[in-house]
Amino acid sequence: MSYCVLIRHGESQWNLENRFTGWVDVPLSPKGEQEAKAAGEKLKAYTFDLAFTSKLKRANDTLRFILAASGQTAIPMEFDVALNERHYGALQGLNKAETAQKYGDEQVKVWRRSYDVPPPKDITELNPDGYSESLKDTAARTLPYWEKKIFPEIKNGKNIIVAAHGNSLRSIVMHLDNLTKEQVLELNIPTGAPLLYRFGPDGTILERKYL
Predict the structure, then answer these.
(1) Is the pLDDT of residue 24 over 90?
(2) What is the pTM (predicted TM-score) of this model?
(3) How many helices (H) and strands (E) does the chain have?
(4) Spatial distance between the Cα atoms of 9 and 60, rounded to a whole number of angstroms
(5) Residue 166 is part of which domain span?
(6) What is the pLDDT of residues 143-195, one digit of tens each?
(7) Relative to the CA of 80, which of 26, 87, 101, 117 has its CA 20 to 30 Å away?
(8) Which DSSP state fits 191?
């Protein structure tokens, strides 16, 4: 039997400022650092063999705080863009409340939570390539990475921690929990809260809980 802990990074500076972040590489807020350290305290009872995280420092720093607090700084860590937050396109950097006033609460909820509707792709200073991703697009890079790199380690009996982002983790949880497109609309992954999955030898899920 093995386990995997999924954890969304602690509060970032743009979470605090209520801005869409996406691929903009912002740091943790002081509260976010404390959330990561508190998560590390909760995870002292768990031993990890491998750690996976994104290429963005808010997730990287969360992982480092957790491993330091739980006394496991020597474990191997892998960093990959496949675990990055979804790209929020032209919304990156915008205040969420002001965006909702402009476009309406329902439209913003669709952009934030829906499965296959991407945010606007307009070219802006924070989105010079005019790119954006839906959750479906995010899953298209996150799930192959999960299946190729992470899940085989779990099936081999390794205990894993994955520090990533709200939407890259939503895509993994949607897959693990067999959620529909409608159900994932209401799925929110809180910052700094370790989500534990225990797996049997054949990879079946035996337990799922927040710590």
Answers:
(1) yes
(2) 0.95
(3) 9, 6
(4) 8
(5) 2-210
(6) 999 999 999 999 999 999 999 999 999 999 999 999 998 898 889 999 999 99
(7) 117
(8) B
Is 119 in a helix, a strand, or coil? coil
The CATH number given to whatever domain includes residue 142 is: 3.40.50.1240
Question: CB of 92 within 8 A of CB of 127?
Answer: yes
What whole-number distance in Å separates Cα of residue 197 and Cα of residue 178? Answer: 14
User: Is residue 17 flagged as an active site residue?
Assistant: no
87 is an active site residue: no
Question: Residue 150 has what DSSP assignment?
Answer: I
Domain count, the chain: 1
Active-site option among 11, 35, 85, 133: 85
Name the phi and psi angles at 102, rounded to 5. Answer: -75, -45
As a dihedral over the C-alpha atoms of residue 91, residue 184, residue 1, residue 81, rounded to 10 degrees, the angle is -20
Q: Hey, what's the torsion of the CAs at 188, 190, 191, 192, to 10 degrees?
A: -140
